[in-house]
Design a protein that fits this description.
Blueprint lengths: L4 E5 L1 H5 L4 H9 L6 H17 L4 H12 L3 H12 L4 H4 L2 H6 L4 E8 H8 L9 E4 L1 E3 L5 E4 L10 H9 L4 E6 L2 H8 L5 E5 L6 H4 L4 E3 L2 H7 L14 E5 L4 H10 L2 E4 L5 H6 E6 L7 H6 L5 E4 L9 H6 L3 E4 L4 H14 L20 E8 L4 H11 L4 E8 L3 E8 L6 H6 L5 E7 L1
Parallel strand pairs: 1-2, 1-6, 2-3, 6-7, 7-8, 9-10, 9-11, 11-12, 12-13
Antiparallel strand pairs: 4-5, 14-16, 14-17, 15-16
Helix pairs in contact: 2-3, 2-4, 2-5, 3-4, 5-8, 9-10, 13-17
Amino acid sequence: MKQKNYYIIDFDSTFTQVEALDELARISLKDNPKREAVYEQIEGFTNQAMNGSMSFSDSLAARVKLLEADKTHLKKLVTHLKKKVSKSFSRNAAFFKKHADEVLIVSGGFKEFITPVVKKFHIKKENIYANTFVFNADGKIIGYDATNPLSKEGGKVILIRDLNLQGNLYGIGDGYSDFQLRESGLIKKFFAYTENISRKSVTAKADHVTPSFDEFLYLNKLPGAISYPKNRIHCVVIGSVSSKELQPFLDEGFTVHLEKEIDEKIFRQASMLLLAPDAIIDAQKIKKAARLKTIGLPGKAKNIIPTSLYTELGIVVFGNGKTTAQTIQRMIDFINKGSISDSYNFPKLQLPEVKSTHRIIHIHKNLPGAIAGVNLLLAQHQINIRSQFLMTNELAGYAIIDIDKDYDRQLLKELKKTEHTIKTRVLY
């Protein structure tokens, strides 16, 4: 019989973008004249525990002592944390509803703020394992339940051992206490979660480093909100572009490589290429980048490669006269939605974002029978087509096909082999 899978997920800096006790300190100590010094102390204790250089129990005791917080502060914290759920967890809310029996939140944080934050994700109360505060008659935090194993060093190991879950256990977290589960042999694999923070002492020992929950789902062949993790979309930048201008790429979750760190392997992995006005690139290098889907040529960037070559390779080009910011946004819109209305080598096509479907982009030579072959294949796979768009120019056809998410992934392999195909991909 197939073994059940359990997903043991950390809360602070994993499920949420922040460390909750640090945020609680900023709320409770707002009017304290020495607040900055206290903030620094609390953050220091947090980092020492997460890196494994201080015992968790000592760190927790020191932080709680410095909080000066009460129930009114906790209420404000919950409101704040609901807005700080990690982006990739938020967009995969459907996963938690479907796997409510298998998802456990295991945290050295506190139920008083964890339970109300994860409630809308259908995570069961009985599957939330965390510490609890002790209050005085006025509602002020005066301590915590020291008998809870999660308040102690190695608490997660103690808890999971006592739960004696039968099946495959996967741990997801950013801190040393999460890695201890792997070290103890209690879990099958440990995924170091780096969407919000990356700790070398943790990532160096992990089975996998996952920059997003999308990546975790993808690696484990679990259904997710997007078909391909954004962190696997590599953007190569050649020439002088400011970090401020590149921020939209980072905000989207793409992996950005600057010219000084680019080697042949990175270039071959690139899906996006941004060429600054001072950059020059030759055709042979472009031809070697088999995954390249879009190129940005902002401002008066030099283009020594014939436009027809880009088209023949299925590469959509933006820019030439547009600012860097405008060019980057058009590249992002192409990757996210398939929009090519501002491209100068493909026909005009403005599209809405993908919602409840997967969007297939099929670029092909503009020859008779090309799109007919695509539709025949879709029919053979009994695919339900939600919508379809097609535009052509003298060299290429650009087809957009929105289909239900439930389909055999073999379809994508066969699409690439249909006659006259240049390039195809599925939008997340």
